[in-house]
Amino acid sequence: MKRLRRLPATTVYVGLLLATAGWMASQSVREQNRFIRHNSSNVHHLEVGKWWTLFTSALMVDGVPILLGIGAVAAVLGLAEWRWGTLRGFGIFLFGHVVATLLTEGAMWLMKLAHLPGALSRARDVGISYGLVATASCLLALSGRRVRRYGVLALAALLTVAWIINQELADAGHLVALGLGVLGARTPWLRSAVRRRSTQKDPSPATPAEATPSQHVCLTKN
After folding, report:
1. Distance between start and end Cα atoms, the chain
2. DSSP 8-state class, residue 203
3. 3-state SS string over 11-56?
């Protein structure tokens, strides 16, 4: 319980994901599809002013087994909140989710204006993956040199392969989210939290002025 109190955002968000998943499991397939359709953050909903779908779309796990997706959120978001605090940890998750959604749906909107094939204004667009990828890439980018160098490259390679194979907008959005996470890792807002944590873990040795009286050498003769 003490650890959960240190992770309020992760606890509440995981609880909401579980509650939504439990409610959807109790509904018919038709009602589930209706709920997903009305909460998708697609071009049509953003055009008509349903901006709240940017947030409600993140209450569902899509594309992977539900418990696996919720477990990934608990691990990645929980680690970020533990390391950087609630505001920064959940902030980078929300930043990745919202901005990656806006950029990908913005690209779809431009395709629609240009009458390009494949532009879907009412596409299904829900899930946790954009925020999850952004947070994971930010964690990797703020880790040690070796993890930072190979971890980010490995994640980028994995997401690129998925995009090449599937050729879906969501896969392109994952690459956008990765870039947003790496960008967030370069901000002073997050770097200050990392430096503060490092200082707490490894305090600098005491200076001569901070030494105890018994450590001083007396040079005055009696």
Report:
1. 61
2. P
3. HHHHHHHHHHHHHHHCCCHHHHHHHHHHCCCCHHHHHCCCCCHHHH
| 132-153: pLDDT as tens digits | 999 999 999 998 888 888 999 9
Write the Ramachandran bin of 95: left for phi over 0, alpha for psi from -120 to 50, otherwise beta: alpha
What's the rounded mean pLDDT across residues 150-177? 93
Phi, psi of 169 (to 5 degrees): -60, -35
Residue entry with tokens 């390009």: 116
Q: Which structure tokens are listed for 152?
A: 């980010």
The per-residue pLDDT for 212 is: 45
Q: What is the pTM of this model?
A: 0.85
Give the residue carrying structure tokens 């959960």: 4
CA-CA distance, 195 to 192, in Å (whole number)? 5
